Each structure stands twice: as structure tokens, then as C-alpha cells.
Amino acid sequence: MKDCIFCKIVSGEIPSKKVYEDDKVFAFEDISPEAPVHVLIIPKKHIASINELSDEDKDLIGHIFLVSQKLAKEYNIEDSGYRIINNCGEDAGQTVKHVHFHLLGGRQLNWPPG
Ligand code: AMP
Ligand code: ZN
After folding, report:
1. Of the N and C termini of the chain, which has fewer Cβ atoms inside 10 Å?
2. Is 114 inside a domain boundary?
3. Ligand nearest to the CA of 50
4. Is 32 in the pocket of ligand 1 (CB under 6 A)?
């Protein structure tokens, strides 16, 4: 989608530190990491937020979780633990309107979140 920074990252128009790609999903390091491991996993297809998901996206979302699991293994946080976060909407602090899942790990993460 025009004017979406994550669509531009998928197309290569905006550079990123890519860590995974297949026909449906793209993953890259967050530009402003909040933990030693901070990766964003996104669908290549533009979906603005979880609110816009439909039935046809069921496999895609399941696939994103399996990619997250694979990346957690690669970053060696499989056993130490990690968090997969999606922020949806203003109160949750969603700043980029293209669905993304944060994979965070490599340090003790606080709970509850702020
Ligand atoms: P959220 O607040 O959940 O919408 O998360 C958006 C995330 O995207 C933030 O953690 C940003 O640091 C990250 N981000 C924004 N622009 C870029 C970029 N060009 N490359 C990598 N990460 C980005
Ligand atoms: Zn987009």
C-alpha cells in the first residue's frame, strides 16, 4: 500500500535488517530495539491492524507464529523465554498501521506492561 512504511520495507524501497522472508511473511530487526532480541514479523500483504483480519487470514497468522518460533530458536531465546506482542489501535500504542508482531527476548521482560 502506498505510504505504508512496512509495505516499503517489504518491497525494499526502505532498507531493513531482514532476518527472514518467504512468500507470505517478512521479518526484520526493529530500528529501535527494546531488548537484545527485537524482531518484527509482518505479513507481506497490507493489513492495517488485527481489527481488519478476516477468515482468509487464519493460515497467515498461524504461519507468523511458526516463523516467530523458528526465529526464537535461531536467536537462542527458545529456552530463556520470549514475548510475542501485537499492539492494536491507539490505546495499545500502535504507531505503524500494518499488522506486525514484536518478538522480544534476551532479557527479563517486565509484567504487567505499562
Ligand atoms: P508499534 O508501536 O507496535 O506500532 O511498533 C512499531 C515498531 O516499528 C516500533 O518498535 C518501531 O521502532 C519500529 N519501526 C518503525 N520504523 C521502522 C523501520 N524503518 N525499521 C525497523 N523498525 C521500525
Ligand atoms: Zn503496509
Report:
1. C
2. no
3. 1
4. yes
